[in-house]
Each structure stands twice: as C-alpha cells, then as structure tokens.
Specification:
about 250 residues; alpha+beta; eight-stranded mixed β-barrel; 3 helices; Sortase_dom-sf
C-alpha cells in the first residue's frame, strides 16, 4: 500500500529542488557589502535562489559606495587552481533526489565560530531570505551567518555558513578562508553551552557558473558543515568576484 504522505513529500521536495536549480546559476558572491552564498535547503520550504554577495560589492549591492577589495585577497584567490565540478554539477543541474531536512527546535543555535588556523573569531547571526528571495548577508563584516532554513551547525545534517571576504576594502570574517588546510579545526559554540568541533575535509574554488549544487545541497545523516565566501578574480570596475571558495568539514567532537 502506498504511503500518500511520503508521495506528497517527494513531490514537494522535487519542486523545491527544481526552484533551487533554476536560481543557482547566479549563486554566490556578487559581493557588495557582503558575501555571496546559498544555504542548506529544506524539502518543505522555498529554496533561496541565490545570495546577495560576500565580497567587496556588486552592482546590486551598493556598488557606488564601496571601495575596491584588498589587493592581497584577490591575488591569493586567483593563484589557487579552480576546482570546477564541470562533469557533475552546473547551474542548470538539479540536486540529487535526496533532500535536506529542516532545522528542528531541539537543535541548538550557533553563537560563535573559531577557526584557529586562520584567525577567525566571529559571532553568528541567523540568515533568512530577502524580499527578492535571496539569502541575506550579515550586516557586520566581522560576523558570519547560518541559514535558518537548514540545520544549525552540529545538527544531524548539512549546515551552510556564509561570511564576507572583504567589505568596503577591509577584510571580512572569511578573508583567509582560502588558506584552510585539510584537518584544520572549526569550533562552533552553541546556545546550549556545547561546542561542536569540525575538521576540514575539502577546500575548493568554483567559478560561479559551475557552482557545485549537488555537493552543497544534499542529504546527510551526519553533522556536516559547509563554509562559503567569495574568491577568484576580483573586478574593481564591476565590484565583483567571479568565484566562490567553499570548505567542507565533518563533525569530530560535540
């Protein structure tokens, strides 16, 4: 006998993943006071088509008021080889059929993130969607944000965290994200007093038109963390980064 509820959930999940795939083409870092990112998506909530930006500025994010990004960042990001998922992921590809689960009230919210290897010590802010359906960005470049439509870091699923690389020419919280190494620890302090510790498993830079949708928005039974900021080459004329730096990490202690 068919479970009607399961069928309904599958249909809703497919529709959400379709919306995500359609909107992901412009994903990430248009950077205007912010960093571009997208976050973990649910089966029963609208998916964020794209993030506003996490770099020094974009035509859609107060470009007229921002100064060029710090030169050093652009140089380091450009020197790193791009790792595109051209063979398996593209802006027109849909995530796999497994869907991410929504945040639960029992999952403790994050309060602070510490990444000793790159000197990150920042407060968390919750990120929702803007009126345009974009993922909001932290209003303070020294803060990072987690998408409240997905799991909080440390919950049983994939949590997505976004941070600025630069802001009006100054360094943002994730300025050194591209310098992470395999095994580097990421410590997340949570509201319940616990600390979730993650170890970096992978770091890669993706051109924006080859955002790894299926590798970021996917189902996982284990607590995982995805950190995203802008990177690649920076255009001072357009106030725009052409890539995203993404780090994947696994929970090692909680």
């Amino acid at each position: 006998m068919t479970d009607r509820r399961s069928d309904d959930q599958s249909v809703r999940g497919a529709l959400v993943r379709r919306r995500l795939a359609l909107g992901i083409a412009a994903v990430v870092c248009a950077l205007g006071g912010g960093t571009a990112v997208t976050a973990a998506v649910l089966t029963d909530r609208p998916a964020p088509p794209q993030a506003a930006g996490f770099g020094d500025s974009t035509p859609t994010a107060a470009a007229s008021s921002v100064r060029p990004a710090t030169p050093g960042r652009s140089t380091r990001a450009s020197a790193r080889p791009h790792t595109s998922a051209r063979s398996s992921v593209g802006p027109d590809k849909q995530p796999n059929r497994s869907s991410l689960s929504p945040s639960r009230a029992t999952d403790s919210e994050p309060t602070k993130i510490n990444i000793p290897a790159i000197g990150v010590h920042a407060d968390f802010v919750p990120l929702g969607l803007t009126s345009k359906g974009e993922l909001a960005t932290p209003s303070d470049p020294d803060q990072v944000g987690w998408f409240t439509g997905g799991y909080p870091p440390g919950g049983p699923g994939v949590a997505v965290v976004a941070g600025h690389v630069t802001w009006n020419g100054a360094e943002g919280a994730f300025f050194e994200l591209a310098d992470l190494k395999h095994g580097d620890r990421i410590k997340i302090n949570r509201k319940d007093g616990s600390t979730a510790v993650f170890a970096v498993r992978r770091l890669a830079t993706f051109p924006k038109n080859h955002f790894p949708t299926e590798q970021v928005y996917r189902h996982s039974d284990q607590p995982e963390l995805v950190l995203i900021t802008c990177g690649g080459n920076y255009s001072a004329a357009a106030h725009y980064y052409d890539a995203n730096v993404i780090a994947w990490a696994d929970l090692v202690h909680s």
